[in-house]
Amino acid sequence: MDTSYVVKFIYSGEAATVPLLHNWSFLDLCNSIRSRFPDLIQGKFMLRYIIPPDSTSCFLESEVDMRMIFRNLVRYNSDFVEVFVTDLPSSSESVVSNTVCEDSSTMLEENDYLGCYRAEAPKSYMTKGWESYIHSEGQKFEGGVVEFRDKLRKYAIEIGFSYEFVRNDKVRVIAQCSKKHSQGCNWLVKAHLCRANGFFMIKMLVNVHTCHGVIRLQKSKMMGSKVVKSIVLDKIRANPNKKAIDIADEIKSDYGLDVAYRTVWYGTELAKTALHGDEAESYAQLLWFSESVMKSNPDSRIAIEFHRETHRFQRMFVTYGAWMKGFQSCRPILFIDATFITNKYKGQIIAASAKDANQGLYPVAYAIVDSENESNWRFFLEVLAEEFAKHPMRRVTFISDRHVGLVSAFPRLFPNNPHGFCFRHLMANLSDKFPAGSYLKDRIPYLFMCCAYSRTPEMYQFNMEILRSEGGDIVAQFLEDLPKENWCMAYFNGERFGEMTNNLAESFNNWVLPLKSLPILDINDGIRVKSMASIAARKQDAQEWLSELCPAIEKKLKENLEVGRHWRVSRSDTYVYEVHCQKYNSMVNLETRFCSCGEWQLYSFPCSHALVVIQQHGSSPYLYVNELYKVEKYRETYSFPINPLPSISKPVHDFGRDAVILQPPLTRRPPGRPRKKRFRKRSEKTRVIKCGRCGKCEGHNRKSCTAPI
User: The pTM is what?
Assistant: First the structure.
């Protein structure tokens, strides 16, 4: 049985319906359109078509497009197609010159002779398809009233008018042109809910404007935060910390619309809420997250504490079995620090991180608490000590920034573990005790650094005498409650591997920076996903390494080899040598892995003196490098994957009658916009900005420069 089709031509508010024959070509279609609308000129109009229920408009420019119409009619099981006819803009009409190329029949445009004054080609904006969002009566919207309102706004923006609601609820929406009362415009749309399937459908559409000034503008009253939300969802999903000013610039470039910063900011916040949900509800999902993680990742530990009566969240500890197992192949040293959470309910993340064999960040455990106090530090260290007891753990060294709560809680839980203080924080604290601009403000920290990096007790005593004599009572008081065993290399009673600062903890802070503004569930899940992907990627990379040492360590070994190539070596015993440097001599014992300079013992890595002796002895340098720096240990570290966590069984609202539903903590958000970056100390040096226009360092850049040139 032959199927009959109908085509509806729409042009300048007028419409005509004709049969669509199977043997029609594209030229036949154009001739039929011109017969219905005599004012049209061949080659001066553009065609687009829509096949309901699909509301996407497609180009109609050739025989191929004509064949696709018939295929899509069969595909959608439809017998109706709408063709929209629009005049080509005058800017695209070419003024043809009578000049003809000698070797071609192509005629040259006058625009080709204008050089830099030639007219620019019109840009196709991403709003182009919005003009077809509202097109006919009977049009359906599967997303219900939300989709209808969104497409109605975008349609009004692209056409260039504004409307007002006569009625607006979940069941029925009636909108009319905002110039209905002033100019008597007849534009009107009525839509209602189809209860059978939940779709929203246009019941009545008067799609003709009788008012003046219907033209698309760069600034539209209809461009609100909800429209911004719909077009930035994917951008926020890819980068939750994307700035509103950058989004506003992208909307201007991609959509050709000027949107106020405040509107963009609110739209961005709406998009974040739509993607990550309400922050209060995020706490209710933590127990499900805990159970799911420990079920899919055995040997993991998530401990959540909350108030037993009010069920309000207090703090939580998280570590994965893969982290603890992988840490066995890392150097036995943990960097501990805390960083702020910037979401609605605030808080802090306390983290313990390690370095892998290639000097990379390796997370071991973290906790989310309300503040950095002694109680929370004790909670974190207690659970960490319990996890260490489950695994065959070496003597682990801890390095921290000497927080008061940590210093008081640490000796009770790890009495036999060395605790090193971050030298950078100590030096900053000492520098703050001297007035700005004084000679001692830079001199005293330098002398303190000489004491900290002293490799022998004799060198420490020499540098300390100079420091005390120049620093006076201020230095004496500062050193009074600062045991040298916690900060000086010569007296440290554990393996520190040359790590004098807590910079790795700052690396963890930057690693979680994109997650700190998200709800608490997304923070935890984001850390899990980032770590899961990192473990898989590093495991894959390590398969391609052919050297015995990791790349970063191999580079350091080569640098140390280059230093002493011209030094002379004298043998004293089977494994004992003397190295004659330019300024001093050093004694090296290969059997005990000792060098009198102290670097080999402190860094657990051969110094330049040792490498010269190793070559003289006829051995391979790789035999004297600690196993924890080798590729084999690196591969062992990342041989334990974090398993995926399917959220298809994630509960939404039904937690059961007896289930515990966690509530967010009682906090009050401070007024003003949340601060994204921490306050820097006065001792921290910031990069000086030099203007690229005037060349001055006065705190401005090329964009804000006002200097006369």
Answer: 0.69
